[in-house]
Amino acid sequence: MSAARRTPLATALRGWGGLLGIALLALALLVVAPAVLSDFRLGNLGKYCCWAIAAVGIGLAWGRGGMLVMGQGVFFGIGGYAMAMHLKLEAAGPGNVPDFMQLYGDGTMPGWWEPFRSGAFTLVAIVVLPALVALVLGYAILKRRVRGAYFAILNQALAVTFATLLVATIKQTGGFNGLNSFPTFFGYNLYDPVNKQMIYSIAAGLLIACLLVVWHLGRSRFGELLVATRDAEERVRFLGHDPANIKLVAFVAAAVMASIGGAMFAPIAGIISPSDVNAAASILLIAGVALGGRASLLGPALGAIAVGYGQSALSESFPNHWSYFQGALFIVVILLIPAGLASLPPRLWAALPRRGRTRKAATA
Amino acid sequence: MESFTTPLLTGTSTGAILLIAALGLALTFGQMGVINMAHGEFLMAGAYTTYLTQQVVSSADVSVLLAIPVAFLVAGLLGLALEAGIIRWMYHRPLDTLLVTVGVGMVLQQLAKDLFGAQGDPVREPGWLQGNLTVLGYHWPYTRMFTIVLAVVALGGLAALLKRTRFGRQIRATVQNRDLAETMGISTRRVDRITFFVGSGLAGVGGVAVALASGTNPTLGTSYIIPAFLVVVAGGLGQLRGTVLAAWLVGVVTAFLTDWFSGSTAQVITFALVVVFLQVRPQGLFTVRTRGLA
Amino acid sequence: MSRGRDYLEVRGLTVDFDGFKAVDGVDLTLLQGRLHFLIGPNGAGKTTLVDALTGLVPGTGLARYGAHDLLGLKPHRIVRAGVGRTFQTATVFEELSVLQNLDIAGGVHRRAWQLALPRRGVPAYVDDALDAIGLGDLRDRPAGVLAHGQKQWLEIGMLLVQDARVMLLDEPVAGMSAEEREATGELLQRIGRERTIVVIEHDMEFVRRFADTVTVMHAGRVLTEGTVAEVQADERVQEVYLGRTTDAVGVDPEAVAAEAAGEGA
């Protein structure tokens, strides 16, 4: 009976513990980091935060929903390119055409660029476009009970296709170079360090917001159903739910988060190109989530930040060997600690007092 | 007419390479539920084996023929090492296997870059493959014909192995019911290992065809792995004829679409077609009854 | 007592596996307020029948419940229509607590958007089910630590939360102790008054003790139907259970099925 009474308290604490973790991360990202990091380092951290936003979504879809979303670069790209298109148009000025179109093309702009002149339209598109794409694709795939490896491969095929399409459409999307050099962000000069810090804060704030959404979902009935679907999809059917719908919600949420991450990435990195959204980029996002702990609350975000940091640090010192590290990361983490680094502290915690107890028992 | 026969032949020979790659994938996936994302890098290893064979045996006429068994062995041994070193520890986690092999693929790719340089190396075609077969005024390059022949031989060899040999019966028994096969005295561990060897070896043979078609390149695996998987997805598991038909269709359809539109548009349409196809036939073209989508 | 107000009508139900008819033209009328038992030797098609009624395998014929033909519905729609089932091996969510398991089954009581809300307190329907299955003391334990019998009760509790008006239970007392069987039987009698309950069972002792109506299946068909006494007196049933098939003794299965259908009506 003591266990029966203790468990709800522990559950409640775990729920609030998650909130505490988010609060600590918010403190670190929004207060400490801007105070101690140089502008350059803060900009880098901003990029990692954007990846972390996408990673939080992956944690939801993959960690809790069991869908290996290996093509999140596509949604990252939708948000990133939508934002970048707006910024290019802002830079060109009203009625004018982005510079690269005069360079590579005949100086005419495709009609579908036109609405992105509006900042409001762009912001709506960053949320609605990926949601629509994920809804249509997810409906087509999940309703036909395509899952497991098939789901993962189709996702990656989508990322490959998307990147190929971008590279091929140089006149419309800048091709291999992507879209770059944005002088302003909604009227704010991007060369001003104060504005840079503001954009960083927006990205970090959005990361915290996404974490709060996932924290809330984790406590909701939907969160329970999602995990139940991951573990026993057929059983959930006999609870009167269509598991495809439950997964679809998580897939769409993950897509929207990836898109938001991409949208902030473009102004912070100053560029969005096919190499930021292709299959390799999608897999790098997965690497971060796996490292941090796919099913944990903070793991995906912290893992993505760590992988981002590792990539810049290692490719600075060993430019040619990042691939080895990344490959080894996958092999070691997935093989040896599949639940990620987030699973280590609880495991150590559980191991410690037991050792104490056995020692006591031995001396007694 | 030329606008019809050229994509048809190009597509058929692309389909032939896809088929060789997909056969190995389907074998390991069907047998063990393992998605080997490093399969594309085994293809790349086969291509570099062809290149290296040519460095040792300077006569291109001989070296290409010699490269076929050597590439099979090299890629097969790579597969065997992968199975013994990593995959056998995680058979109960198929999705995680997929990710681990992604990591292995990255390492192999970087290794190839370090060993052979990031630029690709050309492979000389043997004299007996130069020129065209001219039938009714149409030109059929011998290299493409050779790729198709190679695929037919690989297919025939695999079919014979599965249908005619004792080992083939053991593989099929393990695919259908692993536990039962085990109780009947089949060492499923051994079957797994040899299946992985054969499946990976086939990728090596595919690599020879790739090397002849487009030379070597550290990243060539990445351009074949996804189409090869789409072939496996569309072809369904457990039936060779599904894989054959799907490979040929993906190859030819992509070739025609490339001819009509552009390479990238063709890729987009092919992807859309596979998704639409899955709406109609989620189990692929042909399937063994008891196997649904994983 | 409101017997017969609510019923499940099965007509000509056939499940064809590539030419093998696992269920072959079954007619059944299952009335509310009685404990129906479905018995028969292994491979008689009992579980396949339940699978077809719950959308797990495709069947042809008619399975009418209220305004629905169950054979045309997807599994989750069948559940929403008020038809629930359990499985031979109890499948509860092992990591969730008993309470959470019951709660997660309550989808019929909620609109989709309400899923986004965290759980606050224990809904009345969950509390009622918890009382009915007598697991109140274990409500916060993870379901994985429950004994086999308790898991079966939990599954029945989940059906109660689902508001299943028709319950199809696949061998609920297999592996239970004598006391647990007794408790299960009494539970089924209690909840069965307002529901249509069908139990697949092999344990004849349990059948004799609790069955109101028994249907005997053999080779995909209904062999006979009646009270326990009637069924036990039937020679064909004894033959089937002694391992001699109807074909072996020269009885035309068609005729047997027609006869059985005649008796059932």
UniProtKB/TrEMBL annotation, chain A:
Q: What is its main location?
A: membrane
Membrane recorded as keyword: yes
InterPro entries according to UniProt: ABC_transp_permease, ABC_transptr_urea_perm_UrtC, LivM-like
Q: Which UniProt keywords apply?
A: Cell membrane, Membrane, Transmembrane, Transmembrane helix
Q: How does it sit in the membrane?
A: Multi-pass membrane protein
Where it sits in the cell: the answer is: Cell membrane
Top-rank taxon, per record: Bacteria
Q: Tell me where the transmembrane regions lie.
A: 12-33, 45-62, 119-142, 149-168, 174-191, 198-217, 248-272, 284-307, 327-350
Tell me the Pfam families matching this sequence. BPD_transp_2
Protein name as it appears in the record: Urea ABC transporter permease subunit UrtC
Organism per entry: Nocardioides oceani
Protein encoded by which gene: urtC
UniProtKB/TrEMBL annotation, chain B:
Top-rank taxon, per record: Bacteria
Q: What is its main location?
A: membrane
Give TM regions. Answer: 64-82, 94-112, 142-162, 194-213, 219-237, 244-262, 268-288
Subcellular location, record wording: Cell membrane
A Pfam family of the record is BPD_transp_2
Query: Keyword set for this entry?
Result: Amino-acid transport, Cell membrane, Membrane, Transmembrane, Transmembrane helix, Transport
What is the membrane topology noted in the UniProt record heading this document?
A: Multi-pass membrane protein
For this chain, the family text in UniProt reads: Belongs to the binding-protein-dependent transport system permease family. LivHM subfamily.
Q: What is this protein called?
A: Urea ABC transporter permease subunit UrtB
UniProtKB/TrEMBL annotation, chain C:
One Pfam short name: ABC_tran
Q: Which domain of life is it from?
A: Bacteria
What's in the keyword line of the UniProt record? ATP-binding, Nucleotide-binding, Transport
InterPro entries, per database record: AAA+_ATPase, ABC_AA/LPS_Transport, ABC_transporter-like_ATP-bd, ABC_transptr_urea_ATP-bd_UrtD, BCA_ABC_TP_C, P-loop_NTPase
Give this protein's Gene Ontology molecular function annotations.
ATP binding
Which CDD domains has this protein been placed in?
ABC_Mj1267_LivG_branched (cd03219)
Q: Membrane-spanning regions, if any?
A: none
Record's keyword annotation contains ATP-binding:
yes
User: Is Disulfide bond a UniProt keyword of this protein?
Assistant: no
ABC transporter domain residues: 8-244
Q: Which SUPFAM superfamilies match?
A: P-loop containing nucleoside triphosphate hydrolases
Q: Which NCBIfam families does UniProt cross-reference here?
A: urea_trans_UrtD
* Name assigned to this protein: Urea ABC transporter ATP-binding protein UrtD
- Species per Swiss-Prot/TrEMBL record: Nocardioides oceani
Q: Which gene encodes it?
A: urtD
